Structure formats: structure tokens, C-alpha cells
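quick one, 180 residues, struct below
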Amino acid sequence: MNNPSSGASRRNLVLGVGAAAAVAGVGMALRRFEPQAVAKAESHPVWDQQFETPAGTGLTMGSFKGKPLLLNFWATWCPPCIEELPMIQAFWRENAANGHQVVALAIDQPSVVRRFLERQPLGFPVGLAGLEGTNLAKSLGNAAGGLPFTVFFKADGSIWRQKMGQLTLDDLLQWRTATA
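---
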């Protein structure tokens, strides 16, 4: 004798367990892409870093301490990175006189970055971080190593916020207000 309600109960139990596992998996995946906390950001090794610029000069990160800094990790092969650059450029032009600084670290081949910047020049400093820039981004809270990734620093060198993914104008305006 086969009890049809026990089959339905078993099926509902299996579906319920499967749904719970799926929700947990999605939650874990989303957490992986969420920026992680960074201890003692004002004394973080980022301030000791030096990068070559596309022009071949040195870019010393410590020289940006003391004023608000938007540090953007990007690559030429990353469509959202390329899409946000004109907005970052416009923000920098409008706010540089107020002390807001922008630095972009390219996680890319130097020759490719140079060619890109010939077509789309940027007024703010660009450093050639290469693949080692991914480790720096991870040390600043980018656990997934994804791009674009932006870190908003306050004037004292501490982190106000980190953002994984493409910036919005609202992100920039909130940072400007928070650091004014």
C-alpha cells in the first residue's frame, strides 16, 4: 500500500531543502563580491606603493595622502571600467580645485594602456599596476579581484567606502559630500 501524501511530503521536503541550499549559495556568492573590511587603512601599504605612469615617470601613492582620494582599479578589456572613465574624468575636472584627487591604476599591459590613453586621454594620474595591482586591490577589500573596483579615501588616509562594480554619479556625489 502506497501512501500518496508521503510521496508529496517527501517531494516538498526535497524541494524545500533544495531551495534553501540555492538561497544560501546565492548569498555566499554575493558576499564574495562585496568589499571586505580593511584594518588600519590610514597606515595601509598602499601609501608606500610606487607605480610607473604611461609617460614613464613615477607615481608615488604617498603623495596623495592628506586630501580625499578616489583610487580606481580598471583595465582596457573591462567594458564597465571604460564606461565609467568619462564620468570620473568630469568629476575630477569639477572637483580637483576643491582638493578631491583621482588616481586610476591599470590592471593591464603597459603598451595596451598607452594605446588606449592616446585615444582617450585622462587628466588625472594613471599608474601601471599590472597584475600586481590585483593583489593591492585585494588588500584594500576586493576579495573577488573583480573590476572595476574603487576605494574612496578620506583626507586622513582612512577608507570612507569601497565599491565593486561600475560607479554612478550618486557614488561620486556622496563621497564629495562626505569628504567636504
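Helices lie at 4-33, 79-95, 110-119, 132-139, 169-178.
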